[in-house]
Amino acid sequence: MKHLLLTIFALLCLSCSGAEPAPVTITVGAERTAEYLPSLVGKRVAVLANHTAMVGQEHLVDMLIGKGINLVGIFSPEHGFRGTADAGEHVASSVDEKTGVPIWSLYDGNAQRPSDEKMRAFDVLLVDMQDVGLRFYTYYISMIRLIDACADFSRKVIVLDRPNPNGMYVDGPILDMKYKSGVGALPIPVVHGLTMGEIALMAQGEGWLKRCDVQVVTCDGYTHQSRYTLPIAPSPNLPTQHAIYLYPSTCLFEGTVCSLGRGTEAPFEMYGHPSYKGATFEFTPRSTAGAKNPPLKDQKCYGVDLRAVDDEAVIKAGFNLEYVIDAYRNLGMGEKFFTRMFLLLTGVDYVKEMIMAGHSADEIRARWQGDVAQFKELRRKYLLYEE
To answer: Where are the beta strands (DSSP E) in 240-327?
Structure first.
């Protein structure tokens, strides 16, 4: 606990050492309509999109219909088209009330791949979702599954790119494909430093997907060092930019007995457990919109509040195992601290094994540094924006 407090204090002080990068004006791919609307004229168009697919003040779906595009269907990812469903919650297919366009849920609890009938219903797929740059964030997984399906049916895919808010660094272990799952689909690090468009190109270029006609409409004004504040929360439990920056590290608590604040006003910005010792900070998870049945619901938890840690300090620390190691040592539960999900999130055996063997965060980080260096070289071939 003492070591963790010193670490958090150091992170809080880091902001004094330099100013944040200056904000820049960024035009997202969806707003560059001249780059893709001509390709849609006379075509049957489907979109893979959710509530984040905004073109200025208008949703992509409304804009397309307003332009006379023949929109035949909306594929919706995790959290649904409106972005309000719980993590992993089954969402039934339906019809968009405003436009009458059918919504084809990819999270309806049935096949993860659309039926042949749906694939034959369109000629071009537009992809527009705000990702947050993590291997275990599922929007890119929905995209690559659909690209694979489009390859089988010779359908064109156009990715309307958006900035990666965690795109300024690459960190964490590379997925061991024996742990491939719904929260990890490609052999990439936890923090991969790619936009959705770059992931699509890399997956194609490295042969991780079938070959498909994929076009990326890039962002204008974005580099990987840009600090892009998301205008809309990408999912119900990432309501703040600070939560998005902490998410790579605190999401690991999904694979433990701890709460990371789901069911509170600040999910992913805290962690704790009813038996956590020596803490004055406390919180109680409740059933809320987007967290109907959060871990440790209605139980008073003690732990650590990370809301005051500076954003730039969080970024500098990268994929930080300090928080999980602190809770593991504090609770003294041994292997019972972890669930199967921890292996799926880290994507390797050795992180859990080294934590249990008493290794520090720095010692574990050293294990993946060589792999990350190799990945960064591979990644460079597919970058659409300056590093």
So the answer is: 270-273, 281-283, 301-305
In a domain, 369, yes or no: no
Q: Single out the residue of 117, 132, 149 nearest to residue 214, CA to CA.
A: 149
Do 210 and 245 fall into the same domain?
A: no
Q: Average per-residue pLDDT in the chain?
A: 91
- Domain range enclosing 81: 29-217
Alpha helices in the chain (DSSP H): 2-14, 60-66, 116-119, 139-152, 196-205, 241-250, 311-317, 322-331, 340-346, 350-356, 361-380
Looking at the structure, tell me whether residues 286 and 211 fall in a common domain.
Answer: no
Angle at 78 between CA 75 and CA 79, to 5 degrees: 105
> pLDDT at residue 278 above 90?
yes
| 87 and 182 both lie in a single domain | yes
CA distance 345 to 190: 8
Same domain? For 263 and 346 the reply is yes
- Pairing, β 156-160 against β 214-217: parallel
**Same domain, residue pair 140 and 262:** no
Q: What are the counts of helices (DSSP H) followed by strands (DSSP E) for the chain? A: 11, 14
pLDDT at 15: 47
Task: Give the CA-trace dihedral at 374, 375, 380, 386, to 10 degrees.
Answer: -110
Indicate the number of domains in the chain. 2
The tokens describing 270, both together, are 């805290």
227 assigned to some structural domain: no
Domain identity same for 273 and 312 = yes
H or E element at residue 104 = strand 102-105
The candidate with the shortest Cα–Cα distance to 88, out of 339, 290, 295, 299, is: 290
153-174 per-position pLDDT tens digit:
999 999 999 999 999 999 999 9
pLDDT beyond 60 at 121? yes
Query: Are 187 and 247 found together in one domain?
Result: no
Q: What is the pLDDT of residues 184-201, one digit of tens each?
A: 999 999 999 999 999 999
293: CATH: 3.90.1150
283 & 245 share domain: yes
The pTM of this model reads 0.90
Query: Rounded to whole angstroms, how far apart are CA atoms 118 and 141?
Result: 19
Q: Which residues contact 356 (CB under 8 A, 6 or more apart)?
A: 328, 334, 335
